[in-house]
Amino acid sequence: MNICSMPYFLCFVQDRLVSKKSLGVFVKDLHFGTIPVRLFQPKAASSKPRRGIIFFHGGGAVLGNLDSYHNLCTFLARESDSVLLSVGYRKLPYHTHPHLFYDCVNASIHFLKSLNAYGVDPSRLVICGESIGAAAAAAVTQTLVGRADLPKIRAQVLVYPVLQTFYFQLPSHLQNANVPFLTKDFMMTCICKYLNIDPSWKEAMLTGACMPPSAWRKYEKWLSPDNIPKMFRSEYQQPQSPAPFNEAAYLETKHTMNADISPLLADDKIIAQVPEAFLVTLQWDIIRDDGLLYKKRLENQGVPVTWYHVADGFHGCFILFDKKFFSFPCSLSIVNAIVSYIKGL
């Protein structure tokens, strides 16, 4: 009947399934300018400033909000004994790129300039995100490189990040194209809607026809499946090259190569300056290989990486850690691994 679009429907359903719990933390809703944020502070007394975590939720720029990630943020703040800021960035169906990125950057800068007010140790700052939120975390971390007026980020936590949006012929794209909860069709729908790309260009994007030969020559060294461990390349036959170049498709999609959208493509001089990373990848995730390629790029530039691969993980499992009958062992294992890593900083 087409009464409403998919993004509107999904947001409607999500908002009615949330049950918030705030055990062990003080919670305060704030606005940094026009950006809604939620602050989580452990109730337990502390003799010194705490770690600070800036958190960007996932959801493909369609799903996710402060409420749906409330319990996860409560757990992370309480168990890691950290002050956590969750950012309610603008997203679909009302807002497209670059609003999400700008909101994450501006909220981060505001928080970093106000650490004393929140009892945060400026030497122990973490930027954390899931899925598209992890893309924002990587992009914000890169953007803040060289900002002498701000405290340095100590670490970045990237939970199954989507780190590029123009090359879709990696092993995980082919192996996991129909694995819930992020199928190829849903992924491309989210990307096109978020980046204001007409859906008619999906096929050109999937086959690489929107990539000029010069761009492929530049980025091939970073996108090559040879950078992915052999264990993930079983039965994978790499295409000889992208499909014949389609200039019209390129003109409509060329912004997908910008580093604020595809942090995987940032210059080496930027990559070399970002902080150490905790990187989560999932076996049954269509964007698994984005994380593996970024791991390789970071390591090549001397950036320490702690890699946590989940053999039974699938996209979206992170937020299910407390959903009782809908929870999975992989969900809690990821959350606990992140807490353990952050506590070690």
Automatic annotation (TrEMBL):
InterPro entries according to UniProt: AB_hydrolase_3, AB_hydrolase_fold, GDXG_lipolytic_enzyme
Domain Alpha/beta hydrolase fold-3: 53-201, 248-318
One Pfam family linked to the record: Abhydrolase_3
Signal peptide positions (record): none
Gene Ontology MF terms: hydrolase activity
Alphabetized UniProt keyword annotations: Hydrolase
Protein name stated in the entry: Arylacetamide deacetylase-like 4
